[in-house]
Amino acid sequence: MNTFQTYLHIILPQAFRRVLPPLTSQAISLIKDSALVSTIAIYDLTMQGQAVISETYLTFELWFTIAAIYLMITIPLSLGVNLMEKYLRPASQ
């Protein structure tokens, strides 16, 4: 087995199994933190929501909608990673 095959079939699958949970956690944190980034004036979902609230005064309805959108983004990501972890899990576990 040459070096490339060793990396492809032995090292990378083990490394991917180890790095997948923290990588997913970081991805979800990035999505959640995008709401915090709005304080630095990046025009995202939270900023759009604040603009609509100032026009319509539908505070609770809009924040629940924004929360639902964030959940619709993060829950499928979490479920997809769980499926990937099950697929990558060794047969002995």
Automatic annotation (TrEMBL):
Q: Does the keyword Membrane apply?
A: yes
One Pfam family, short name: BPD_transp_1
Q: Which GO terms describe its cellular component?
A: plasma membrane
Major localization class = membrane
Which subcellular locations apply to this protein? Cell membrane
What family name appears in the similarity comment? Answer: Belongs to the binding-protein-dependent transport system permease family. HisMQ subfamily.
Q: Please report the name of this protein according to its UniProt entry.
A: Amino acid ABC transporter permease
